[in-house]
Every structure is written in C-alpha cells, then in structure tokens.
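Provenance

Sequences were taken from public entries as deposited. Structures were produced by running a predictor on each sequence independently, with no templates supplied. The record for Pyridoxal-dependent decarboxylase from Streptomyces phaeochromogenes is shown for reference.
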Amino acid sequence: MDRVLADDLSRLPELLQSARDFAARAVSGLEARPVAQLGKAPDAEPLPAGGAGAEGALARFAERWAPGFSASAGPRYLGFVTGGATPAALTGDWLTSAYDQNATGSGDSSATALEHETLGWLRELFGLGDAHTGAFVTGATVSNTVALALAREWLGERLGVSVSEAGAAALGPVDVLSGSPHSSIPKALSVLGIGRDRLRTVPVLPGGREAVDVARLAEALDELDGRPAVVVANAGTVNTVDFDDLRAIAALKERYDFWLHVDAAFGGFAALSPEHAHLTDGLDAADSVCVDLHKWLNVPYDAAVQFTRHRDLQVRVFHNASPYLGLPTGEPDFVHLTPENSRRLRALPAWFSLAAYGREGHREIVERNIALARRLGDRITDAPGLRLLAPVRLNVVCFTLDGDPTRERVHALGRAVAESGEAFMTPTFYEGTHALRAAFSNWRTTEADTDRVAAALECAVSSL
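Predicted structure for Pyridoxal-dependent decarboxylase:
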C-alpha cells in the first residue's frame, strides 16, 4: 500500500474530525458569506507527482478553492430552484459516502430495501397510489428522460414495434404535446432519438397564464386522427409556478390515446400544503411523474425520483442482460429500472430528512417559503423602479424593471445584486419581457433574509 495512503488510513478518525470541523465552519458561516462568488477561479495546476495526503489536500482545497464556492446552500440563494441541505439530510449524505453502497440490487445489502421504503414515503407525501413504482435518479432532467423513454416504449406497443429492440427509428414521427414545457423536455427528446422538433407547444390560457388550454390540447389530439401521442403536463412552471389542470387533462384519455407525463419537479411539493394541495389533484392519474428532491425536499445534490404506473415497460427499456446481474424478477432490482448500473444510495439523505422531520416538518418549510415569496412580491410591488410580471402563485417571484426592461439593464440588475453578496437570482424571459426570478425553496430562509434581498434589490435598482 502507498505510504501516504497507509498513513491516512491509520489516522482516519483524526482526518474525518478535521473534515467535520472544516465543514461545520462552512455550514455555520453560510449566512455571513457572499451568496455568489463572481471572481476569477484559480488557474489549473498540474497533477502532483507525489500526494500530500488527505490533510494536505484539505489545506490546499481550503486555500485555493473553498473561497470561490457560492453559498448556494444558504438562505438568500434564490437562483434556479435550489434547496439547501437539512441537518438530517446532510447527516444521511455523509453516511452515504461512509457506507458506500452500490444500490443496484438486493443480493448483498438492505440498501435497496431502504430505497423502496423511502419511495413509499414519497408516494404518500405526493398523494400517489400503490400503482406507482419508482426509483431514485440524479435530477429532474434524468427523471423526465426516464419517463419519456417509457412513453417511447409505450408508443411502440401501440404501433406494434419494440423500440427497445428495434430503435427509435421504428416509431416514425412522434407527437409530444405540452403547454409550457421545461427545457429538459426537448433535451430528453434529443437524447432519446425522438428529436427536439417533435415537441409541439399547445396554446396556454390567456391573461399571462402558463397553464395549457385544455380545450386547445383536445383539439391538438383530435388532429392526430387516432395516432397515439405523449402529453407532458406541468405541475409548477419555472417562471410563475403555474399548474396545468391535471384532472381535466387525464379525463381526455377517455377520448384520446396518449401517455400522460407530469413534470412536478418542485411543484409536486404543493401537495404538502392544505391551501395548495388542490393544485396537484390528478397527479395520481399520470402514467409517469417527475419530482426533484434537491429542490424543495432540501437534500444535497444529486437526488430526484421518477414514478410510473408501467414498471413492465421500465424493465423492458432498462434491464441489463448479464449473467452476473441476474434477470429481472417480480420485484426487479434497480439496475433494471434506471440508466445507471452503479448508483449511489441517493435515498439515504431523503430517508434521514423524512424520518427526522416527517410530513409536518416539510409542510412547514413549504408553507414558510410560499409566505416569504409573497412577502418579497409585496416589497417589489411597493418598490420604485420594479414591477411584478405575474402573481406570486407559490414560491417563485417573477419581476422586472418598471421602465425600459432591456436585456442589458435587467441582467445588470441581477449582477449588481449578486456583486453585493446579499442574494443571487437568475434571469428569465416571460411574456416578451426580460425579467428576474427569485425562487424560495431553502429551509433556512427567514423573513429577515427576505427583507435583506428586498433591500439589495432596491439599492441595486436605484444605481442603474
């Protein structure tokens, strides 16, 4: 064994304590750190010939790289839809690395049983019935890709071909319909060989809505003359957290032949709030569902789940035919359900957080974030030089400059806020207008944090 490696092994408890102390300082200092780091990253160095050991590596990381990391796990990082990591989830994530389980099969470990238990808890959390089975994947993009891979196989069944055997070309042109699809949907269609151009956007409801017009969706399906199709419904759009009428869309299946996929990456968590749970009515009727857990469940990257009513199709698409892996059984191993063979036990941080805080703890996070988004929306409404572009429906605030909202000026506003170190928000384009969006999904965020974000915005807009 290499001498440096052997020395690290003999001193492992002390090394882990050093890492623990370093991590604790980083986590406890999140609120005081600049939220975004916009400076130049260090130049790359050549690979060292001789190693410095774990302690030396930690010192090098602390000096060269840690200062440039953003405070994305902190309370005022409102870009994208980014949760933090609850204390329990962080504990589970550390143990995931310590146990280092390859959660592919049940032959040598109870890790996969833990994943099944966690999936059952999540089904209950989102109001899905036992007909839905699932698996952990890396994020919403892969969850959506898995779902559309199953939809592709389902289309093949309808047309009398096996896509998993013959390839996507055997399908011919595919029709994928959606009102306000997330950008991961065309990406998935590209990966799957269906093609980005096969996505047809259906008109949405008037009045600044992003929810699909169900009547227009029915017309689009009618125009297919009986050809099977894929419908991607949205439970929480990126800009305004608008929800399609899932029950009304599902009812169309009585007249038309289509696979219903629901992208509920973060909007699915509305099910936890009694005031907003109606938005997810009909989710259980979907053929497949995407939920991204490193958003509003506040578990570390990466972690998402995909659910489906069609596990037989999932096995057909993803089974790995190898003697050392075994054949799929009545309870197929995860190696037969996802694109990965080797896979991290992503379920453990989620299990820890759900076990630690339960439904009520996560409901409180969701409802507090919604209230804080409304608070920021009210501040923006009252602030000179700013205006809301859409009602604050859930946890995202979409806003712009009150006058001359050019791309340059709006992006300059976002940069000014980021450079202040107080907050970070991401740009968007909504209703023909350049805008910023602030997404609340972090368990740490408080009213005081929200007021600091508002103050940073007001200061930045006054200097434009």
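The chain has a mean pLDDT of 96.
The two ends are 61 Å apart (CA to CA).
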